[in-house]
Amino acid sequence: MIRARVTLAVFSFVLVTVLSGCEQTSPPASSQTPPENLAARVKALEDLIPSQSHMMADVGDHFSNLWFAGRAENWPLADFYLGETKSHLRWAVRRIPIRKDNQGRDVNLGNILEAFENSQLIQLKGTIDGKDKAGFEKVYKESLTVCYSCHKAADKPYLRPQIPTEPASHIMNFDPKANWPL
Fold first, then answer.
1. Which of 23, 54, 75, 122 has the highest Cβ tally under 10 A?
2. pLDDT of residue 29
């Protein structure tokens, strides 16, 4: 009997608590965020995104590693670094799709990237898929010239790519015959 009364009391307490919570209403949400708050929020989000130069440093690292993977004839790794290069180039162009040159004219980086993808990157992919080391080295070197033409178009002729002298990643083993992990 006591157990039934305790159970009834607990059940009643829970029911009253739940029902009293249902009666409370929250203030109506504003249908629009004030423009100054929205602008501040957008600015805060933009500040979280890395700069285009940071993204391009990643491109340089991936493209450098691509050179060493191709030279070592580690074709799966070369394909990986080609994909990373392409992905990070697209990311950089999404960040700043149009740049102004020193005369204030628009430089459409998206168009430049599309041309680069449809020429040099497709050719590099072909040499990787064909496991053609000599072709890979030739197209890679030509690609650096095309990269530099983009830098010049964006009024950054001081950014002069070159054949890398060492890989960007010192932890990566480029030898396709290496035993994992050491």
1. 75
2. 54
**Around Cβ 68, how many Cβ atoms within 10 Å?**
19
Q: How far is CA 12 from CA 3, 7, 19, in A?
A: 14, 8, 10
Question: What CA–CA distance (Å, rounded) separates 86 from 89?
Answer: 5
Task: Give the domain CATH number at 65.
Answer: 1.20.120.290
* Distance (Å, whole) CA 177 – CA 77: 12
Residue ranges of the alpha helices (H) in the chain?
A: 2-23, 35-48, 52-71, 75-95, 109-116, 122-129, 133-153
Q: Which domain range does residue 89 map to?
A: 47-97+105-153
Q: What are phi and psi of 181, to 5 degrees?
A: -90, -15
Q: Could you report how far apart the first and last alpha carbons of the chain are, in Å?
A: 73
Single pTM value for the model: 0.76
Mean pLDDT confidence for 113-129: 98
